[in-house]
Amino acid sequence: MKVEPHVAGSDYIDITKNRTLRQWGISLVLLTSLTIYIAIFWARLAKLLPPPYNEWTFIYEPLIGPWWINNFFLDQPVYIRLEILWYILCFVSSMVIPIIILILRGRKLTDFGIGMLNRLGIRLTSIAILVSIPFGLWIQIESPYPHGLTTMYVLSLFNKIPEHFLILGILTALMLTHRRLPNPAYMAPIEGSTGQKILRWLGLAQPVTIDSDNPTLAWFGLNLTSLFAICASGLVFFMIHLGRANPVEVALSLPGGILVGYITFRTHSIWHAIPAHWTLNLVPMAILHFYKLN
Questions:
Q1: How far apart are CA 101 and CA 176, in angstroms?
Q2: Where does the chain have alpha helices with state H?
């Protein structure tokens, strides 16, 4: 592939520059810290550990649970009130608190995924939505839970926003050299054969640049550092699904997490992957309900 120079004076961030051992060390410390922080609120796997090693995962229930149960949503069963509390805690811990910290440190929220929609993102989202439907059907058919659009289910969909922000936006950004997502991906001209035009329309088949460290990864618009960042966020995304009763959902959350991490990285925004995540849940449920398959 042809080697393309960077455009002089552009707003390009060199995501491919080799990092020092110190920078890699900082990334590992940040990854460990964020993983522990996320595990406090999405600790389904830890709850499966034998006592007393799983006791810390229930720490919010004795501290906040009784007060919440005795004062709010008194017309709801106790387990629903705790579920609502859990969703609120996740939203606060994964979006409100990180945003406050970023603002206090003078960081731009757009550098962590709160960016505008863009052309590449819309294209990738369209494909991701189409791909997600059959996998979503597989998940719904294997699900041991009822296929109804309940209040709890709607809250879980709403909670995808802070989940994507913390894991796919912030975590991915902090694993990169400049500790922020790069600007929306440079798109090579859509030219060549019909197949190459289609691939470049999707942001693939990109030429090797003078900063690329791997020709294969450059084809995807990536390099070793960005691949590490995407895989790290995908693994944490997978981690929060561990312990769920649906084994298909758990298994698909790893490639799914890497895919939405890739979309977030290439588009500089969390807002492109979220519709695909919602489609994965809602469209198959509607199909099953319409055709009375559940």
A1: 19
A2: 21-41, 44-47, 60-71, 78-91, 97-104, 119-142, 151-158, 160-163, 171-174, 194-201, 215-219, 224-239, 247-267, 273-290
Q: What is the rounded CA–CA span in Å between residue 187 and residue 214?
A: 18
Q: What is the pLDDT of residues 10-47, one digit of tens each?
A: 344 444 455 678 888 999 999 999 988 887 766 555 56
HSE value, Cβ hemisphere, 13 Å, CA-based, for 199? 13
Instruction: Note the pTM of the prediction, 2 decimals.
Output: 0.80
Answer yes or no: are the C-beta atoms of 151 and 236 closer than 8 Å.
Answer: no
What is the b/e burial string over 79-107, where b = at least 16 CB atoms within 10 angstroms of the residue's CB?
Answer: eebbbbbbbeebbebbbeebbeebeeeeb
User: Could you tell me if 229 and 220 are in contact, meaning their C-beta atoms sit under 8 angstroms apart?
Assistant: no
Q: What are 158's two structure tokens? A: 């709403």
Tokens for 89?
A: 């805690």
